[in-house]
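Sequence, please.
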């Protein structure tokens, strides 16, 4: 159960992370897009996909699109807003600014970055496999369509909320033994009496 201090830390962490997210989401998207592009192009022969992050969306550009054709845009905040939730969970700790806690938060953020890259790939491939009519049918079989679209929908419905909790569980939660010692203090050893 959360005590008053934990609730205050949770709210403060959420608000700080929200401000950070608003300020730097464009920069973050510019780091996610090229990594996802590399993964997508690994499966293309010849490589056609280009991803750009002009802000608030990922623009999907293909070399084989007709000149002047509208470039599809994928909303970006839906992909990475869960950063705010992850940071708020880390703020629950009694001393969130301790060096070891900051290191764990940075590792957790790196994991969340990898999740964002992977699911941006799923989003692009889902678009390719289901939204381009005859071209989609010619380039993607039934299994591939279900795989990409199912993976992307999983992230949209559950994964984007589950990922921060799973990553926090791995990196951020307290060890139960440590937590109980913090509350009670270290155990004192009993002195043995000699007979």
């Amino acid at each position: 159960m959360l005590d008053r201090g934990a609730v205050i830390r949770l709210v403060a962490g959420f608000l700080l992370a929200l401000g950070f997210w608003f300020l730097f989401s464009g920069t973050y998207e510019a780091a996610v897009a090229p990594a996802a592009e590399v993964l997508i192009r690994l499966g293309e022969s010849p490589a056609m996909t280009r991803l750009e992050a002009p802000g608030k969306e990922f623009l999907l550009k293909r070399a084989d699109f007709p000149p002047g054709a509208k470039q599809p845009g994928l909303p970006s905040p839906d992909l990475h807003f869960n950063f705010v939730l992850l940071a708020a969970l880390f703020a629950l700790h009694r001393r969130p600014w301790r060096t070891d806690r900051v290191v764990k938060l940075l590792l957790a953020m790196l994991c969340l970055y990898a999740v964002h890259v992977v699911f941006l790939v799923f989003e692009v491939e889902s678009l390719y496999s289901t939204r381009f009519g005859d071209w989609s049918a010619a380039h993607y079989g039934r299994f591939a369509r279900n795989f990409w679209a199912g993976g992307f929908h999983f992230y949209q419905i559950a994964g984007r909320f589950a990922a921060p909790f799973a990553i926090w569980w791995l990196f951020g939660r307290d060890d139960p033994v440590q937590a109980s010692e913090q509350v009670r203090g270290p155990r004192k050893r009993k002195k043995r009496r000699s007979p």
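Residues 176-183 have pLDDT under 50 and may be disordered.
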